[in-house]
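Protocol step 4 of 6: structure prediction from sequence.
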Amino acid sequence: MKRAERIEALAQLGQYISEYGEHLQAYVGRTEYNNKWFTKENQKQSLLAIASQFLDRDKLNEWISAYDIPMETEAKTIGLVLAGNIPLVGFHDVLSVFVAGHKSLIKLSDKDRFLLPHLLDKLKEFGPASEAYFEVTERMSTLDGVIATGSNNSARYFEAYFGRYPNIIRKNRHAVAVLDGKETEEELRALGHDIFSYFGLGCRNVSKLYLPKGYDFNLLMETLHEFNYLIHNSKYKNNFDYNIALFQLNRVPLVNNGSIILVENEALTSRIATMHYEFYEDANVVEKALHARRDELQLVATNLDFSDLNVKKFGEAQQPSLSDYADGVDTLAFLTKL
């Protein structure tokens, strides 16, 4: 396929997703049945974000204009090991390989086995020649490059197994928020979406708060209580109940509003239904500390002016653009230089 034909097929796929018809909804229902973390609402959120941010024709053309992608390309074979923490989390990698004119060998996560194959089938309808660009597989061989996403633990195995190929291997990343105590109720509500979207399971979900010393939790906790509908999900509620019982048993001081538990802790990683926080006296000290941990961060949500960090406004964490690359590694540049 020529580059323009690939873009046109992707734009049509975006239109199909935007319509969110009964056929697509059937696959959404099947996915929820097999993975209760992937609720219909969360899948729809991911799908519509993909359609609007990744599959808009103008945005696609603007994105690729910064790269040297020939109109016709000799396709290379790229192995993709996809994560399964939130719905369609690996779609950007699949998209990037296709836009670059290469073929994907895709290892799906067991947690997300239905939506992506369906979207690839629809893509074949819009551009029949695209069938040659995708293969879902359990085994990978004869590769020209690899993009693999997982935990710090799985990354060691990826490096051992795929180290001989040009690769991008992603590890655990975290999102944090730095508040100055002047945030409005609207901004705190937007922060709530950064925290609670996809039950907080994504690397772009805020898992830790940096708060000015003496911070008053009242407005924050009242606003975050608006997300208490999550407690009706049995998997989320089981984690909430278990964690609050564990903290109380160990006499850990906490702040609790019935939908999330706040615990003072320096770690960036927090349990499901739990948020870590840390007090600070000088925002400059926080900025320097975050700079020192840049390799662990996906983004920082804040109103403060933190230079050289991937800063987002409150509410933007789960709305990445095409050029907002995971781990800050330019996927398309990697693919075009193979």
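Step 5 (inspection) to follow. The first strand starts at residue 77 and ends at 81.
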